[in-house]
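>> Question from a student workshop board

For tomorrow's exercise we were told to take the sequence and the ligand below, predict the bound structure, and bring the output to class. My setup keeps failing. Could a helper post the expected result so I can at least see what it should look like? The ligand is 4'-phosphopantetheine.
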Amino acid sequence: MKTAVYPGSFDPITLGHLNIIKRTARIFDKVYVCVMKNSDKNPLFTREERVELIQRIVKHLDNVEVETADGLLVEYAKSKGARVVVKGLRAVSDFDWEFQMALANRKIDPAIDTLFMAASEKYTFLSSTVVKEMAKYNADLRDFVPREIIDDIVKKMESKR
Ligand code: PNS
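>> Workshop helper replied:
Here is what the output should look like for this input. Compare the format with yours to find the bug.
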């Protein structure tokens, strides 16, 4: 069975992330979407909340499972029997950091490969940070995130005001 891990902070999940999940699920037998800690980021949603939002959106994808994990990504991948970690690339600006991470991960565990998937051109501008900025100013989020989670983002933003 070909298994992949798609890790991220997903704070919150965007249409760009969902596009990568769907395309990965067409290539692999099993995909684990893993909500992980990015020590450079201070998240809006708790990890459990982010898992629940993603689960709601991918429930129709039979071979996709959503989890959260502490610790190293490569250790999580190994625990799932995955040899591949999928990362989405939107632009050259993503590449430097992602390449560095891929090399660091390979150093820790050479058995696990990072596969870069080009983002859909529709979503190259999109990030969770853009979504949060738009939400702060009550912008229409329908072009950015799945409709099922718009209310959750609006409510969370209101609770932080
Ligand atoms: O969506 P993000 O914030 O770009 O995702 C980054 C994430 C969570 C995938 C990355 O920070 C990560 O892999 N965290 C787990 C800890 C780890 O394994 N770090 C890389 C080894 S140096």
